[in-house]
Amino acid sequence: MRDSLQALCLCCILGLAFPLPLQKSRANDTGGQDSETYGGEEPLGAPNRCEDEEGFDAATLDENGVMNFFKGDFVWKGGVSSAEYLSASYPGIRGPIDAACRIHSRHKLDVHNKVFLFKDSSAWMYSGGKLQDGYPKPIHELFPGIPDKLDAAVECPAGECLSDSVLFFKGGDVYVYDLITGKVKQKRWTTIPKCTAALRWLERDYCFNKIMFHRFTPVRGEIRPAYALDARNYFIRCPGRGHGKEAKKNATIMSIMDRCSNRSFDAFISDDLDRVYALRGNWYLSLHTHLDGWHAWPLREAWKELNGIINAAFYWDHKMYFIQGSQVYIYKADQSYTLIEGYPKPLQEELGIQDDNLDAAFSCPGSSLLYFIKGNKMRSVDLLNPMGTQSLKQTIPHTHIDAATCTSLGVFLFDGPVYYKYQDPAQLATATELPEPHSISKDFMKCVE
């Protein structure tokens, strides 16, 4: 499985499999004071979203990854655009609607990357802004066991839910609809207020209660600390509002968080669930969600015990390994990343590696060999027997690299703003000259140069 998913993910990122548009990330930029702000000019009859305390009827990302906020007969797309008439963007339905969600499921191609709008007892399905043939249909026909007159809906992909699912909210109940089996589990989450809208963005789930929102975990329904927050400071850009103003005064922090700054990355890592991350300083970026926008998050948001610069990272046997100095952290890659009990441990004790402060490490799909690099020397150790004999040091044509990763497409070495690609570790070990460099910001970060 890792082979195919890795190939698909890197193909998407590198544009090798099929062309993808460069992301217009400003559409979903939740940034602060220097961001473009909403001007307040609306069509006749549209509410002013910066003054309306009642919030929205529904919210979702569309198939292009742009946030859509629904209110009455209007829809706002992105953080700064003026309202559009609902019927112009979603023909065949009149507002207000009850709920909305986009569904991603490679196992259910008939609904994959489609937008659903729900009103009363019916559901409308759209692709490319066009109502699909045969719609609207009864909710109970499309999603057996799901009630009418919903409050909110949001997708829950495999890796967070057990399989690709949709969460439907009504009153104090949550209905988890499994897209693969068609089974429904009904839950009651007492810690979350009534959701009048719900949204999933960059692997984060948000419940809106009028203009306030909470971040929650879709498995247990737990609210994350430091919530509730006002959507007008995060999702809607209104004059005089915003967040992160102090951080934006720090040019160093901003350049670390800016994926297009050409600063070096410390590590790249991916897992079997098609999730790919780039680490820089105390922050990380999700590359697999790039069509929905970009945002740098603190390492602790995904791996709560990690803090500071990571020397190297790799994935093997359903686990993520992070090497920091002479220590190694091992996380189980499941519905969330959980540190295995007893870690971190000394690198030498766990992997038999005596070198501290490695430059990079990587393992390749279908192989138990771990390759680690320091300076212009590369060695390998068998992860099935890490205390066994290590390979002899091999000289590579790089005097220094910042990070490395290996997929079914080959070995990628990252150095400053560029990366180099090798067919496999053997080609890297026998190379005497550097191959052609390529731009990290352009190919991996989708920056327009």
Summarize the model shown.
The chain is mainly β and 449 residues long. 10% of the residues lie in helices and 33% in strands. Strand 31 and strand 32 form a beta hairpin.
What report would you give on this structure?
By secondary structure, the protein is mainly beta. It has seven helices and 34 strands. The strands form eight sheets. Strands 5, 6, 7, 8 and 9 form a five-stranded antiparallel beta sheet that branches. Strands 22, 23, 24, 25 and 26 form a five-stranded antiparallel beta sheet that branches. Strands 1-2-3-4 form a four-stranded antiparallel beta sheet.
SSE layout and pairing:
Elements (H helix, E strand, L loop, with lengths): L1 H13 L43 E4 L5 E5 L2 E4 L6 E2 H4 L9 E5 L10 E6 L2 E6 L2 E2 L5 E2 H4 L9 E5 L8 E6 L2 E6 L5 E5 L8 E5 L2 E6 L2 E5 L12 E2 L20 H7 L9 E4 L5 E5 L2 E4 L10 E2 L13 E5 L2 E6 L2 E7 L3 E3 L5 E2 H5 L8 E4 L5 E6 L2 E6 L11 E2 L7 E5 L2 E6 L2 E5 L2 H6 L7 E2 H4 L6
Antiparallel strand pairs: 1-2, 2-3, 3-4, 5-6, 6-7, 7-8, 7-9, 10-11, 11-12, 12-13, 14-15, 15-16, 16-17, 18-19, 19-20, 20-21, 22-23, 23-24, 24-25, 24-26, 27-28, 28-29, 29-30, 31-32, 32-33, 33-34
| Approximate shape | elongated
Helix content: under 10%
Give the beta-strand count: 34
Gap from first CA to last CA: 34 Å
Residue-averaged pLDDT, rounded?
87
Q: How many strands, which pairing sense, and closed or not: the largest β-sheet?
A: 5 strands, antiparallel
- How much strand? 25-35%
Provide a count of the helices: 7
How large, in whole angstroms, is the Cα Rg?
Answer: 23 Å
| Secondary structure category | mainly beta
- Give the low-confidence spans: 1-26, 30-35
